[in-house]
Write a structure and sequence with these properties.
Blueprint (H helix, E strand, L loop, with lengths): L8 H8 L20 H14 L9 E5 L3 H11 L13 E9 L4 E6 L24 H13 L7 E4 L20 E4 H6 L3 H15 L1 H10 L25 H12 L3 E3 L4 E6 L4 E4 L4 E3 L3 H16 L16 E8 L2 H7 L6 E9 L3 E9 L18 H13 L12 E2 L3 E2 L8 H26 L13 E2 L6 E2 L4
Parallel strand pairs: 14-16
Antiparallel strand pairs: 1-7, 2-3, 2-12, 4-5, 6-9, 7-8, 10-11, 11-12, 13-15
Length: 475
């Protein structure tokens, strides 16, 4: 600048004597730690992000939503001091958030293993990872209930499927196809084919812009709208989401479609002015009550039917809905790092009871060659489930149950047909002759195959005017 005559020699000489290192602002990190430190650090972030205040510069009295007993339990888990949850892998880390569904309050924070010190990397809010299959109920199936008017017994076809407008085949985790399945099966067995084909139907109906807008309102959109791809149906995000934001999205399902922005702060008092400042929380309906209830019901059905051992996370006497998610390494990366072929990268568990929602991430901060910085089947593969169960048993009220909205009815439909047909309507339409053929066939079948069992009659819920309960009708 001096050579080009932008500054004088005196200014040049003065600036030359200042060391660049003295101008670099150091990150505010201390080895000193306080009780509930992981939670306190999120409070600081909320102050800065939403109220533009710093507790280091402005004298404040802060009233939080902290559940101190819960956070103590979480701190014990993080420090490997919980008698029921043990980490047999020193590299594994965890992050998560616990939300009160009633008001969106954040009552507990899982900041990470051995969280000692202030202003550390907090895995509840700073850990951004691809959500894997935990996104499927939120994205593909919730929007299908909302915009395609599906019922809870809608049948999907798990078959050879390609990403839309490509020659790229979609693979299921077990490299298999199940054929005609219900939505509960599709979510419970985590079928990739049906998740993508369902999102494609939604996009064809409402457009990519509406889908991106929905994700954005949930604070889950991590890319420009034009970069949203069908890989998002499988959790293949550009960057990823935080456990806190994923918990808020699942809380929306528990709240019958109303999204409430999460907050650790109730209100603060500015001690300079003695003024009370409240944090204004966003509250918006993103799904209709009946659509939200249907995905809520489906996720509870997934747990109750114990798809892929998900019921390991079910607390005693507490009704929950939940979904797991597992992300994988690139095959070349696994080969380079000398990892097993079935090694997994991140494992998520997200779920809700009537009163609380929890999202938990488990994974690794860094990947080391020839070290166990990956998941295989074993205790640590279950860590997220075990933590979820432990916390829910601590805080949830077993007497609280999900109520069926008035917009929901129960009817008998013919399984596998779409558009849906009421069983009684079909019988009336075909008339007496059809009934005679049906009875004749039924009698003949029972004579020829006396041990044959028929489809179980069961009652499921769907929204008006769509039908629900399914039966087996032969004609």
């Amino acid at each position: 600048m001096y050579k080009n005559k932008y500054i004088s020699y005196e200014e040049y000489d003065s600036a030359s004597k200042i060391k660049v290192s003295s101008l670099i602002k150091q990150k505010e990190i201390s080895n000193e730690s306080y009780p509930y430190q992981a939670y306190i650090d999120v409070v600081y972030k909320d102050l800065e992000n939403y109220l533009k205040l710093s507790p280091y510069q402005t004298p404040l009295k802060i009233y939080t939503n902290l559940n101190s007993e819960l956070q103590l339990l979480i701190d014990n888990i993080q420090n490997n001091n919980d008698p029921d949850i043990k980490f047999d892998n020193e590299f594994i880390n965890i992050g998560g958030a616990v939300i009160d569904n009633n008001n969106g309050s954040v009552i507990g924070i899982i900041g990470g293993r051995n969280y000692n010190g202030e202003r550390l990397f907090n895995h509840a809010i700073d850990q951004i990872s691809q959500p894997a299959s935990t996104i499927k109920p939120i994205l593909s199936y919730a929007l299908a209930y909302e915009h395609l008017n599906w019922c809870s017994m809608h049948t999907l076809n798990d078959k050879e499927t390609y990403y839309p407008n490509t020659n790229t085949l979609i693979n299921n985790v077990d490299n298999n196809y199940l054929g005609e399945i219900t939505i509960s099966d599709a979510i419970g067995y985590s079928r990739n084919t049906t998740a993508v084909s369902t999102l494609n139907e939604v996009i064809n109906k409402i457009g990519k812009h509406s889908v991106a807008s929905y994700l954005n309102k949930l604070n889950l959109l991590d890319c420009p709208e034009d970069e949203l791809t069908y890989a998002y149906a499988l959790g293949g995000f550009k960057y990823g989401v935080s456990p806190l934001n994923l918990a808020s999205a699942y809380s929306m399902i528990a709240n019958y479609g109303i999204y409430k922005s999460p907050s650790t702060i109730r209100y603060i008092i500015d001690l300079n002015t003695n003024k009370k400042i409240s944090l204004i929380q966003k509250e918006e309906r993103l799904l209709s009550e009946d659509s939200a209830f249907l995905i809520n019901y489906t996720l509870r059905n997934v747990v109750n039917n114990n798809y892929w051992n998900i019921a390991l996370a079910k607390p005693r006497n507490i009704e929950i809905g939940a979904k797991t998610g597992t992300s994988s390494f690139d095959s070349n990366f696994k080969e380079t790092m000398n990892y097993p072929k079935n090694a997994s990268k991140d494992i998520w568990f997200s779920g809700f009871s009537k009163d609380y929602t929890i999202a938990i991430w488990s994974g690794f901060d860094k990947y080391l060659k020839n070290e166990k910085t990956y998941f295989l089947n074993g205790n640590n593969n279950k860590i997220a489930k075990l933590i979820f169960k432990k916390i829910m048993e601590e805080i949830s009220n077993p007497s609280l149950k999900f109520e069926v909205p008035s917009s929901i009815e129960t009817h008998n439909i013919i399984k596998g047909l779409y558009p849906y047909k009421l069983a009684i309507q079909e019988v009336n339409k075909k008339g007496v002759k059809a009934m005679k053929r049906f009875l004749s066939l039924l009698i003949a079948t029972m004579i020829l195959f006396p041990a044959m069992t028929f489809a179980k009659y069961d009652s499921v819920k769907v929204s008006k005017p769509v039908i629900h309960t399914h039966v087996l009708v032969m004609s």
